[in-house]
Structure formats: C-alpha cells, structure tokens
From TrEMBL:
Topology of the protein relative to the lipid bilayer: Multi-pass membrane protein
GO (cellular component) term, any one: membrane
Top-level taxon: Bacteria
UniProt-listed Pfam families: AA_permease_2
Record-annotated membrane-spanning stretches: 34-53, 65-85, 106-129, 149-168, 180-200, 220-238, 259-281, 293-326, 361-379, 391-414, 435-456, 462-481
Subcellular location per the Swiss-Prot or TrEMBL entry: Membrane
Keyword Protein transport among UniProt keywords: no
Gene Ontology MF terms in the entry: transmembrane transporter activity
Matching PANTHER family: AMINO-ACID PERMEASE BAT1, OS04G0435100 PROTEIN
Keyword entries, A-Z: Membrane, Transmembrane, Transmembrane helix, Transport
Record keyword Transmembrane helix present: yes
Protein name: Amino acid permease
C-alpha cells in the first residue's frame, strides 16, 4: 500500500471519529491547502483595493507602521486557529471547534456570524475586482464606468467563480496553486517595474515611515486607527485552510501550516509591495483624492500603457482571490447544513455525484454575496450623497463577522482549558505548547480592539449592517434553532453503519 493510501485511510479514520463520512474528494496536498488561504488573503486584493483608504487616513506611515502592526497580531490569531484545526480536523472549522469546546448553541452562533463575514468577504473581493476591471474595460470599449456598470461586472465575475467551483475541486485546486505563484510573480513584476522604471526618482525610505499626515478631517491618531482597515481586511479568509481540511491529505499537519504560513508570507511579500508603491508616490494628496488611489499612483509612476498592463495583471490576481473565497464559503455552508444548521439544510448539504462538490451551497454563496452588494447599490441610489464607500462597507462587514467568529473558539478554548475539559492530550501534532495561553490572550485582545475600530464612523454603516444581521440571527434562534438544529455533537451518535452507508453511496 502506498504512503498516499495510508494517509487517506488515516485521514478518513480521523474524520469518522468525529462522526462524519468522507464525502468530499480528498485530493489537496499541502501546497494546495496553503494556496487557497494565500489566494484569499491576496495582498493584490486587500492591500491594493483599500490602498486609498489607508493612504487617506494614515498617509505613508500607514504602510510602514500599520501593515506590520496588524500582521503581528493577526499571526497570533492565525497560530491559535492553526492549533485548533490540528486538534479538530473537520470542514465546519470554527463552528465545530466552538460546539465541541462548549456546546451546540455556541457553535450555532459561531457558524452564523462566520457566514455573515463570509458573505462580506466574497462580496468585498469580487466587488474589488469589478472596481478595477470595469474602468479598464470601459477604456477599451469607450463607455463610462459607473456604479451600475461596476455592479454588472461584479455579477459576471461572481458567475464565473460559481461555475468553476461547481465543476470541481481539482480544477479549483490547480487554479489556486497557480494563483499563489501568480501573486508572487505579479508582485515581483510590480516591484521591479517601480524600482527601475518609475518616472523620476523614488521617495527616500524614510517617507515610508512618515507619520502625522492625514487627508481626512480626523485627528491623526484616530485617522490612523480607521486606516487599519486596509491591512486588517487583507488578513482575512485564512480559515479557508480549515474549511477545506476534509479535502486535504494529512490535514492535521498541512492545514495548520496552511493557515499560519499564508499569513506570514502575505505579511512579508505585501510589505515589500506596499513599500515600493508608496515610495513611488508623486503627489500623495492627489492620489488620496482620486477615485482609485492605487490606479492613480501606478499610472503616474509607470505611464499609461505600461501602467495599464500592470493593472490588468493585478486585476487577474484579484479574480483568483474571489475564486478561492467561494470555495471556502461554500465548504463552511456545506458543513453547517450537514448538521441541519440552516433552513432547507438538506438542499445545501447535497453533494454533486458527478463533481463531488457542494453545488447548491456554492450557488447560495453566490446569491447571498450578490444581494449584499445589490442592497448597498439600492441604498446609494436612494441616497447618492452617502459619504461611505461601498468597498469600505463590504470589507468592514467581513472583518467584524469573520474576526468575531475567529475569536469565539479561541475564547472557548481558554475557558475549556481552565475548566480542565481541554487538555494536552486533545491537541493535534501542530500546537503552540506552553505559549498557547499567552498567544490566545493576545489574539483575543486584538480581535476585541479591531472589531470596535471597524464600525466607528465613517464605517458606521458596517456596524448597522452587522447589528441588523445579528437581530435576524436572534429571531432565527427563537424560530429555528430549538426545533431543527442537532449540532455537530449529534453526529457522534451516528452508527458506523450509517457512516459507511453514506460513503458507499458516493463510490
């Protein structure tokens, strides 16, 4: 028997212990698992699409100080999540961790809050692609880019992601592998272009760490905190490595490394990219006041034609990011529906027999993400003088939703350890040892801090949106939870005969 077959049998056995059949196709290697999180983090999406936000509020110092500060604390969050993924290797990830560490109600709320964040991140990523792609397409075909044309472009992008995710994990995994290398290659091209072909000279390195300049009406320190959204939104979605854990070979080692290294590499590569973009700025005030600061800076530094080529390359990287985010979102929804956590759960938990993908969950993810952006579009039509931007709204929703969901199992792990219910014997092979509690505490403090910062003005609309969704969640708790939700722990009561029967049906 081959080493791969041994791993497959061990992985299947580990999953069976948590009460689940091996329904999804387990074919992802370690690099593929890393690549999906690296692609969703996508420094060429978050750092680029919100470059103007960071520059407007924090100036050049946002790139020199804001990015490393956020990255340090996010690596603490990622390390604790990696530890939990190694201990509980199921596709439900955050939601299963919370339910097992405490109870099914904690798991249920974690799942729904995570879904809120997932809707926001998919909508935010693909809207970012549209914000870049639509003006570039408009320049080719001669029409004027507007909110309406951006929304149409956004819809087409979502559609392509839905089709490819539906067709199969093998195609998506290969595209994600390519995406990881593509991101690195595009960053290299961008950095080398700015280093050697920038019109005029680059700013001195000290400019990158210049603080005190803001192009907002807020005091600098307060504005700097608001500007952290740029880095914080970039470092989201790395839980994808956990959501695809049932499709990963040797998941208790490879998925944790996927979570942690995707953040670490994104920090280093992203910092290099932001440094050269910022050092190439000719007029920071004009860039901050433009409709798209990144496009403005690149066009001024590299010229029209060369700059457009670079922007097309960046836009393609964003597209890959959106593709991976749909994969993660749909797997989380599939896992939750598998435990009857959603209305019409039997529909969303269905696996396509032909493609071995959660097809209906994929298309539900597409629809929900479109609706969030469409509702914002309608609000902007009714109130065209609204001061917040659509991209800031979508990204803030995703940051708050995802990080609250990240924080719940981290808190519950600390609580379970204090009560003696989670011990060293429960840890997987990837763990933080004696530093686990300290790193977990630091991660929780950062999550609390950043969630407050993300919903204060001018991002208050994101706070209203999250609050509205939470109210709906409480209503669903009262109307659906008690009658239908069994929780992931209920799966532990399933007989092995039932598990084997489900696996036989998929053969």
């Amino acid at each position: 028997m081959s080493l791969s077959s041994n791993h497959q049998d061990k992985d299947k056995s580990d999953l069976n212990k948590f009460g689940y059949a091996q329904e999804l196709l387990r074919s992802m290697g370690g690099f593929s698992n890393f690549a999906i999180s690296f692609s969703i983090i996508s420094i060429l999406t978050g750092a680029v699409s919100l470059y103007g936000h960071g520059l407007t509020y924090g100036g050049a110092g946002m790139m020199g100080f804001g990015w490393p500060i956020v990255a340090f604390f996010v690596m603490c969050v990622a390390a604790v999540m990696a530890e939990l993924a190694s201990a509980i290797p199921t596709a439900g990830a955050l939601y299963h961790w919370a339910a097992i560490l405490r109870n099914k109600r904690w798991g249920w709320y974690t799942a729904w809050i995570n879904l809120i964040g997932q809707i926001g991140i998919v909508a935010g990523i693909d809207y970012s692609v549209a914000l870049f792609a639509d003006p570039l397409i408009a320049s080719v075909f001669g029409y004027e880019s507007s909110n309406t044309t951006v929304l149409i472009c956004f819809s087409v992008i979502l559609l392509t992601h839905g089709i490819l995710n539906h067709i199969g994990i093998r195609i998506v995994a290969k595209l994600n592998d390519f995406s990881a290398w593509y991101h690195i290659a595009v960053v290299a091209v961008l950095v080398l272009s700015l280093a050697f072909f920038t019109k005029g000279s680059l700013n001195p390195v000290s400019y990158l760490f210049q603080v005190g300049e803001t192009f907002s009406d807020k005091p600098y320190m307060f504005a700097f905190l608001i500007g952290l959204l740029q880095a914080q939104w970039t470092f989201t979605g790395y839980d994808a490595s956990a959501h695809t854990i049932e499709e990963t070979i040797n998941p208790r080692v490879r998925a944790p490394w996927g979570i942690f290294t995707s953040v670490a590499y994104s920090f280093v590569i992203g910092f290099i990219m932001l440094a050269f973009v910022t050092l190439s700025i000719k007029d920071a005030s004009a860039a901050a006041g433009s409709s798209n600061a990144f496009i403005y800076v690149i066009s001024e530094a590299l010229g029209g034609t060369f700059g457009s080529v670079i922007l097309w390359l960046v836009t393609a990287a964003m597209w890959f990011c959106g593709l991976a985010s749909i994969t993660s979102f749909s797997r989380m929804m599939y896992a939750f529906s598998r435990d009857q956590g959603m209305p019409l759960s039997t529909q969303w938990a269905q696996i396509s027999k032909k493609y071995r993908t959660p097809a209906k969950a994929i298309w539900l993810a597409i629809i929900l993400s479109f609706l969030l952006a469409f509702i914002d579009y309608l609000i902007k039509m009714v109130n065209p003088d609204a001061t917040y931007t659509t991209i800031a709204f979508l990204t803030a929703v995703s940051v708050v939703g995802l990080y609250v969901a990240y924080g719940i199992p981290i808190y519950l792990k600390l609580r379970a350890k204090a009560e003696g219910r989670f011990q060293d014997k429960h840890l997987g092979p990837w763990n933080l040892g004696k530093y686990s509690n300290v790193i977990s505490f630091v991660a929780l403090i950062w999550i609390l801090f950043i969630c407050v910062i993300m919903v204060i003005p001018p991002n208050q609309m994101a706070g209203y949106a999250v609050a509205g969704m939470l109210i709906l969640l409480v209503i669903m708790d009262l109307s659906y939870y008690n009658k239908h939700f069994l929780g992931p722990q209920a799966a532990l009561n399933k007989s092995m005969e039932e598990i084997l029967r489900r696996e036989k049906e998929l053969e």
